Amino acid sequence: MMMEARGGGSRPSSGYSQRSRASSVGSLAASGGGGGSRLSRAGGSLLTRYGSRPDLYNSIRHDPTNRALVLDACPKDRYALLHATKTLKGDREIVRSAVRHCGDSLLLSSLHGDREVVNEAVSGLGDSLRYAEKLFRGDREIVLSAVTQDGLALRYATDKLKDDKEVVLKAVRQTGRALRHASKRLQGDLEVVMEALSKDNTALAYVAAESHESVYGVGQDGRVYYQALETLSTASEWELQSKPGVSSITVFGPRMYAVGTDGYIYKQMMVTMNPESTWTGPLTGGEVEMLSIAIGGGFVYGVAKHDKRVYKQVLTRMSPSSTWDGPISDETEITSILINEDQMYGVGADAKLYQQNYFTMCNTSEWKGPLTTTMDVKGVSMYGNKIFTLSLDNKVHWQLLVDFNPYTDWRLASQGDTIAVAVCATVLKEACQDMLEDEWRVKGYHIERRMAAENARGPGG
After folding, report:
1. Rounded CA gap, 360 and 201, in Å?
2. Whole-model pTM?
3. Is 2 exposed, middle or buried (0-12, 13-18, 19+ CB in 10 A)?
4. What is the DSSP letter of 11?
5. What string of DSSP letters covers 290-338?
6. Where are the domains of the chain?
7. Where do the DSSP E strands lie in 220-263?
8. Beta-strand (E) ranges in 330-376?
9. Distance between CA 374 and CA 396 in Å, rounded?
10. On the CB side of 134, how many CA atoms lie within 13 Å of its CA?
11. What is the Cα–Cα distance from 169 to 130, expressed in whole angstroms?
């Protein structure tokens, strides 16, 4: 879904103007009869500005009991009810005529508890939901009518309806900023967030920033599967997440990078990954094919198929025509790698785990290890205070980092049939930020902003 960038200089929406007028009505209603003389002295300029008829307004002020006059004025003057008598403010025919013309007339009436009147009011001006009795703020049909007309009317809905996905989708499709008033749960719902951002990218400010701890594994069929870390167990099931064609994976920021069965690198956003989504790539090419990759320090590191040694290239310059530098490791054969902080961990051809500082790695530096002797491994991942490994029978195991040593036993964590594993936290807000930036780059907005910044600095900048 493409997300249209909007500059700060855009005109206010019609909903904004209607809400401003509604606020004026509230002020006038609060001023009571005293406001009439003030408005008259001003020559009716305020009334005219907000779509009123000073002649009708003054006629009703001088003859507030005249039903025919008030009924005739309602479709023409948004303030027709302001000086009408209490009896006429409760007259259904008059009030319905008034709210059909302008929903904020509901404030001036005494029928805030009449469902039919309220529904007509919010259908024409969603923001008038604020004047309805509390009962109707929890009425799903009325709230749907209100947010369809003005998404920001969601702010007046009950907490239950702010957590109703259909209601919130209606609101954000009208204005992305309505995401601000959605429940925390729906501020983290991918469909709702994408709809909001497609309407207004400033809705990014309201996207949930909570992280979701996840375990991703590559199955024997070359597809990526998923489990929540908190529910990972020998009884839990893996959920399908991608198309086939993957042999190993690594995570960097909000993206998953994968080595395809062709030995080249692909990527996609984790939050939008699904069994039908497409991998972007290949991002690399040439004669050097990879078994496993890891990313750190601005570089992508890979274990080459032909010699099982580590190579690298600049992440941002990676392309089908870019070349790998290396080998940058010694002749020890490695089959899988992981980067954590300043350390690279490698699984050797002997199924043992080794490590070295990847900043100082070169073709003469040595791997330290083995780091574990209690179990042969084929893959490794780290997250939080734990280290995770894949045993040769394709099952995930773990142990605490504080206890990690060559003699500590591993604890079984999952079922089998996993040939690669990555444990990470996914953050929807971070992913959305990256997607917006990618789209801005495609459209050239980053160049426009850079030029604007240079112009703002001036010649002496």
Report:
1. 42
2. 0.75
3. exposed
4. P
5. EEEEEEETTEEEEEETTT--EEEEEGGG--TT---B---S-S--EEEEE
6. 14-206, 211-428
7. 224-228, 239-240, 246-252, 255-260
8. 334-340, 343-348, 353-357
9. 14
10. 3
11. 20
Is 211-428 CATH 2.120.10.30?
yes
Tokens 């495609």, located at residue: 442
At 117, the amino acid letter reads: V
CA distances from 28 to 14, 61, 66 (A): 21, 13, 21
For residue 2 the two structure tokens come to 């493409």
Pairing of strands 353-357, 343-348: antiparallel
Number of Cβ within a 10 Å radius of residue 148: 17
Q: For residues 388 and 382, give the distance between their C-alpha atoms in angstroms, rounded to a whole number.
A: 6
Residue in this structure with the two tokens 């007046």, named with its chain if needed: 156
Phi and psi (nearest 5°) for 294? -150, 150
- Report yes or no: 207 and 192 within 8 Å, Cβ to Cβ: no
Q: pLDDT tens per residue, the chain (461 residues)?
A: 444 444 444 334 444 444 555 555 555 454 444 444 433 333 333 333 344 566 666 776 666 677 776 666 666 666 666 667 677 776 777 677 666 766 666 656 667 677 887 888 888 888 888 888 888 899 999 999 999 999 999 999 999 999 999 999 999 999 999 999 999 999 999 999 999 999 998 899 999 988 899 999 999 999 999 999 999 999 999 999 999 999 999 999 999 999 999 999 999 999 999 999 999 999 999 999 999 999 999 999 999 999 999 999 999 999 999 999 999 999 999 999 999 999 999 999 999 999 999 999 999 999 999 999 999 999 999 999 999 999 999 999 999 999 999 999 999 999 878 999 999 999 999 999 888 887 777 776 655 656 666 666 666 54
Tokens of 375: 């179990």
